[in-house]
Amino acid sequence: MPLYHTEDQAMLAESVTGFMADEGGIKKQLRHWRDTNCKDGFGHGLWKQFAEMGLTGMLAAEADGGLAMGHVEAGIVLAEIGRNLTPSPFLTTSVMGVTALKDASDELRGRWLPGIIAGETVLAMAIDEGAKHKPEKIACRAERAGNGFRLTGAKDFVIHGTSADAIIVAARTSGSDSDADGVTLFAVPKDAAGIGHNAVRLVDSSIASHVRFDGVELDGSAVIGEVDGGRAVLNKVLSAGRIGAAAEQTGVGAGAFAMTTGYLKTRKQFGKLIGEFQALQHRAAHLYSELEIAEAVVIKAQQLLDGGSERAELMVSVAKAKAARACNLAVREGVQMHGGVGMTDEYDIGLYMKRERALTEFMGDANYHAERVAQLSGY
Amino acid sequence: MPLYHTEDQAMLAESVTGFMADEGGIKKQLRHWRDTNCKDGFGHGLWKQFAEMGLTGMLAAEADGGLAMGHVEAGIVLAEIGRNLTPSPFLTTSVMGVTALKDASDELRGRWLPGIIAGETVLAMAIDEGAKHKPEKIACRAERAGNGFRLTGAKDFVIHGTSADAIIVAARTSGSDSDADGVTLFAVPKDAAGIGHNAVRLVDSSIASHVRFDGVELDGSAVIGEVDGGRAVLNKVLSAGRIGAAAEQTGVGAGAFAMTTGYLKTRKQFGKLIGEFQALQHRAAHLYSELEIAEAVVIKAQQLLDGGSERAELMVSVAKAKAARACNLAVREGVQMHGGVGMTDEYDIGLYMKRERALTEFMGDANYHAERVAQLSGY
Amino acid sequence: MSELEAFRAEIRSWIEANCPEEMRKPVQDEGDICWGGRNFVFKNEGQKAWMEVCAAKGYTVPDWPVAYGGAGMSPAEAKVWREELARAGARPPLSSFGIWMLGPALLKFGTEEQKVLYLNQIARGEIRWCQGYSEPGSGSDLVSLQTFGEDKGDHWVVNGQKIWTSYADKADWIFCLVRTDKTNVYQGISFLLFDMTTPGVTTKPIKLISGASPFCETFFDNVVVPKHQIVGQLNRGWDVAKYLLGHEREMISGAGGGEQTSTIGKVLTRNGLDDPMLRAELAQFDIDALAFAACGEKFLDEIKVGRAHPAKPNMMKYAGTELNKRRHELLMAAGGSTALEWESEETRGGAPARSWLRTKANSIEGGTSEVMLNVVAKRILELPGA
Amino acid sequence: MSELEAFRAEIRSWIEANCPEEMRKPVQDEGDICWGGRNFVFKNEGQKAWMEVCAAKGYTVPDWPVAYGGAGMSPAEAKVWREELARAGARPPLSSFGIWMLGPALLKFGTEEQKVLYLNQIARGEIRWCQGYSEPGSGSDLVSLQTFGEDKGDHWVVNGQKIWTSYADKADWIFCLVRTDKTNVYQGISFLLFDMTTPGVTTKPIKLISGASPFCETFFDNVVVPKHQIVGQLNRGWDVAKYLLGHEREMISGAGGGEQTSTIGKVLTRNGLDDPMLRAELAQFDIDALAFAACGEKFLDEIKVGRAHPAKPNMMKYAGTELNKRRHELLMAAGGSTALEWESEETRGGAPARSWLRTKANSIEGGTSEVMLNVVAKRILELPGA
């Protein structure tokens, strides 16, 4: 498959680009919700508009009312989200959540998918335990209790945890913390008794929650996939989240870069446009190269994932790591080339730096994925 | 102690600088011995001149006829050796060898030091086993045999192995390969029966030997220091070799950098001196910064080593790693900024690149020392 | 015992006897710094007492002459003072732009009256100064500044705008570059001092990405400045500015100096992390940081005996600030999602993230990294056309 | 079965039937490459047979028209041919600057006579070409070249000197940039072809740091070149040169393309190394290399449908060559002291070190990295004054 957009994908990209620039722009969304100290960190109105655009259910099966699209298409949306720093529950809900629900029972899908597709329901993912992503180890426990389970433990860095209608939780139903088997995924409704939140605003103004499950009673219908066999579903969710975050990050990098080259073409010092200085030109050209490479490997990994290739897992990690490094360079160069004004809240470039940092951390940073690349490559 | 040269050291530096430029220059020494395919890879005449300058025994005790100087002074000589790419046995003989002999018996010192001081004797160090430096593991064995020892095993990357009058060998006299204890150092004369050499010319035109010891009989007087207690002596030898190589490498970096800035000031393209291009200016200024930092930490480590500080071991590794990285950058930038002519044998910059590579490998590369820094720092 | 060792013993017991308990805890954040000035609100009694007892002995500016409020210490004695402060874990009694920046410039360029008046005020923490250099259109290209002082006989009337004026909203006086001759770029600038309460001076804090507002925009609307409030010669303020900037860079670059003994790789074990790739990055960083610390030590040693290349501070500023940015990138990585928190108690209000963002200005303020590299290329490497 | 799949089956069985055993081993070094030409010494019978059987079918230049010695394959078919060659582990039957460089330029700018004559010679491996571009004073600034062709009616008399002429001492003919108008920098250069045995042509190999001498200095002393041996218009040779350089960069940048599946991190286990810091470097490299391979694949896909920015090859050349240099730095590190050996049997005569040194030219030849970055800044980013 060629590594550029098909006609359909190009059309999708065109409409999403316009929509996100018009409706999801920094002033209208990110700054607005941040400056009004919104407890959700995003706007539900825009989420409705996502639904009207047909984006919320794009990954869901047609039989479930979705568009049965793939990660390439989701990536198109996420890149524009990244470029505009648009706060939205798209990645956790429509990408990771819907991926998880694909393996869920008719009952569970029926319970959650219509709301997602309508832009009324938000999902959050409770995977991480501790400050660094390490899903190989899951200590949060769900013990058999009657016909169901009792969930006990804590999860961190649960984005949209407090605004989500359901939290998808990876819990251990057997074995010890680092076992591959014995993991089960649950869709836990927000109003289940025994859930406690410690919501914190993050550097990028998104809201994450430290969630405690204090003997939360769940009946068997909350299980996604097989009991003890959740690792396979979790891996799909992780791949979806990682390549999604990588796609968003290429958008963040591209947005920061566009802003920076724009500044280079207007700011004057020493009687010259600063973009005339060769040292900055070379750094900008190098950065362009890094961003192009990151964008390419993200598409490659998306295609492999959509095609079910056995190389997908490796290339998703390559893509997540590369996108993180390239985007990190883009925001660092962006702030530096903006000079003093780049340090001010008034300019947007700093917002890109903040978002980059949070996205890098989400679902494993560049070092986490470098380790995976080494291990998957057998060294 | 201030981190600049004392008056005495400055005088030493002045005389060594002139001597090495006049007598140790690239054309007179390195190219000459390379192009005549000299089996030693260096000139014995120059070694005699080193002696006349009082350099060969500079680290030896005054009672032994030496000058009782320290690593700062040895580093002054090595930096000039580096700057001129002067092939000589100074590092293995006068720095590492003499350091080892300081812990040797009167008999051994009497046997080898006078020849070294006179510029007639050359020592080689047989430490490495395998292609990468890893002296924590020593498999070469010396077993008790009668009043002495029988040495069996192989050593690699023994610089000057075939031209040395004696090889100082780190061998195991008890315990298993990776034990800290049970190591003994021996001074093995070149004519001992059972020594086999496979001499190879290296990329920098130096000669290294793969040495085999095939039941070499040694009497007890060949032992340096205590039997089984050689690790302490070996560590001193390693520190001496490492900081010495780092000092030489700062000279290599400085020599390459001087050649490169010189070229930037004379080569014209696009109607300008290429040194006028800001992109090259910034890279040159960054390189200057790296080289200055490397030079500073090398002096710091030399002083700590001379002062017997407990931080010396850590800082020697920091210095070896930093010098390697900085010098590597200097030669890469050097060749690139020279453009096509930098690729030709006619220009000297490529010789700097070759020497840098060999020095980096000698006594542990930047990664080896980074690992040591982490371990010595407790992480 | 050498004279210096006797001095050390004296200082040690003096600190022991005089430094209040509260002043022997590490500085946690900017709020713990004693800036002094007319309107300064001391954090506690100890902070005030420590400043005053030091000021009385001249220890706030130990190496300034006694006549100007200092203790007249030699460089070696001043080093002993700093070492003993560090040894006791005692905080600096007073920090200010007056001490770091204006003071050295006045010592070199000020009249005797100016020295006696202003330096004593600075040493006692009575007047807090801010710096009026950059303008919106004149950042790296500082000399293009436009703020103009019109000659009115015995005074100037100053109009214009400054930006990046540190703590202008808290400062009592400003040292300010003002154009006094429009026909000459370099030799048309004067270095003026004036009270921030002079009619026509207004300030407006700039909110930074870190959330803090340490800088202001500062506006001058027909501000009257008496002629005797100039430092150095008329239209030769650029000389004073350059000297001061050099001193600032020296200070910034020296900040990483001294014998640094700690590595940041330990955050791994502190945070219970098992991340071999981050470990490799941290080791690489620690090598660079320990090496740079040695370079800082060497640089200070060389400065003392006049052996440092006059443009060397530019290299040190470049390397030190780039290193510090990298340090905070790594600390953020080691801190993971916790370090992303912006307002939580656990992070003391997002301290890791805010510090990380703050460091991004290191390579911009006081001369950008790009300007530093330009200067190194020109003045040290002597590359053509640089 | 689709048409393409039928074609694939046909190619596969043809290779199976025709490729000699010796030609199914990986190319070890430059000595294994079949360059063709009048004086070429085949390494073995198989090499000669493979070239000839392929040439007879047009497979040495599969996508050239049949009339010019090719097989007239579509891009998709040519890709199948390359894939099947790779699948069989078969070596390319013929490699040459004629195929890579001159051929494409002739296809675009040549007259029908030139195409029929020269392209057929190239396709059959009869004539080996070299490239006469750079001069001692004109490297990156190629257009400043001075070699002059004086107009003598029906011929030019060429005088001057070229440098970096690849294999000039082994080549039969040269395609050469010659100034034919001294009054016009860009529009004063012509693209001439001539026989290297023409009186007045001499070559002198340049010894490289790798020890090899693939390049020459080439001298022209009153060399007579008939007027019909010009490609394109008089004084418009720069257009041909630019096209050819672009094609060269495209080729170089495409060389890293295709679906790269192997990582170099495995050298660790292959060499029995336990070096966590090198492992981290290798993983970082593998990420960059796999990502670049994806970028190469995307670039080739985009070129096929005309979607690639025309200046994109410059970016690809920059990134690919810098990556390859890094690859060899890491391979040298992983090889340790063994990799330093220059003449030993174990290293096949110092192959690792010589290859490592060879890669240093990657970012110089065919346009330096600096020139590539200039072009990207100007033509893609459209930065001012670039």
TrEMBL record, chains A, B:
Domain Acyl-CoA dehydrogenase/oxidase N-terminal span(s) in chain numbering: 6-120
Q: Which Gene3D superfamilies match?
A: Acyl-CoA dehydrogenase/oxidase, N-terminal domain, Butyryl-CoA Dehydrogenase, subunit A, domain 2, Butyryl-CoA Dehydrogenase, subunit A, domain 3
Task: Respond yes or no to whether keyword Oxidoreductase is given for this record.
Answer: yes
Q: List, separated by semicolons, the cofactors it needs.
A: FAD
Q: Which GO terms describe its molecular function?
A: acyl-CoA dehydrogenase activity; flavin adenine dinucleotide binding
Annotated keywords: FAD, Flavoprotein, Oxidoreductase
Q: Does the keyword Amino-acid biosynthesis apply?
A: no
Residue span, Acyl-CoA dehydrogenase/oxidase C-terminal domain: 229-375
- Pfam families, A to Z: Acyl-CoA_dh_1, Acyl-CoA_dh_M, Acyl-CoA_dh_N
Show the CDD domains listed in the entry.
ACAD
Can you give the residue ranges of the Acyl-CoA oxidase/dehydrogenase middle domain?
139-215
| Similarity comment | Belongs to the acyl-CoA dehydrogenase family.
Tell me what this protein is called: Acyl-CoA dehydrogenase
TrEMBL record, chains C, D:
Q: Which Pfam families match?
A: Acyl-CoA_dh_1 (PF00441), Acyl-CoA_dh_M (PF02770), Acyl-CoA_dh_N (PF02771)
Any GO CC annotation of this UniProt entry: plasma membrane
Q: Does the keyword Iron apply?
A: no
Q: What Gene3D superfamilies does the entry give? A: Acyl-CoA dehydrogenase/oxidase, N-terminal domain (1.10.540.10), Butyryl-CoA Dehydrogenase, subunit A, domain 2 (2.40.110.10), Butyryl-CoA Dehydrogenase, subunit A, domain 3 (1.20.140.10)
Which molecular-function annotation in GO is an example for this chain?
A: flavin adenine dinucleotide binding
Q: Which residues form the Acyl-CoA dehydrogenase/oxidase N-terminal domain?
A: 3-126
Q: Any idea where the Acyl-CoA oxidase/dehydrogenase middle domain is?
A: 130-223
Q: Which cofactor does this sequence's record say it needs?
A: FAD
Acyl-CoA dehydrogenase/oxidase C-terminal domain: which residues? Answer: 235-381
Q: Keywords assigned by UniProt?
A: FAD, Flavoprotein, Oxidoreductase
Write out the similarity annotation: Belongs to the acyl-CoA dehydrogenase family.
Q: What is this protein called?
A: Acyl-CoA dehydrogenase
What species does this protein belong to? Novosphingobium fuchskuhlense
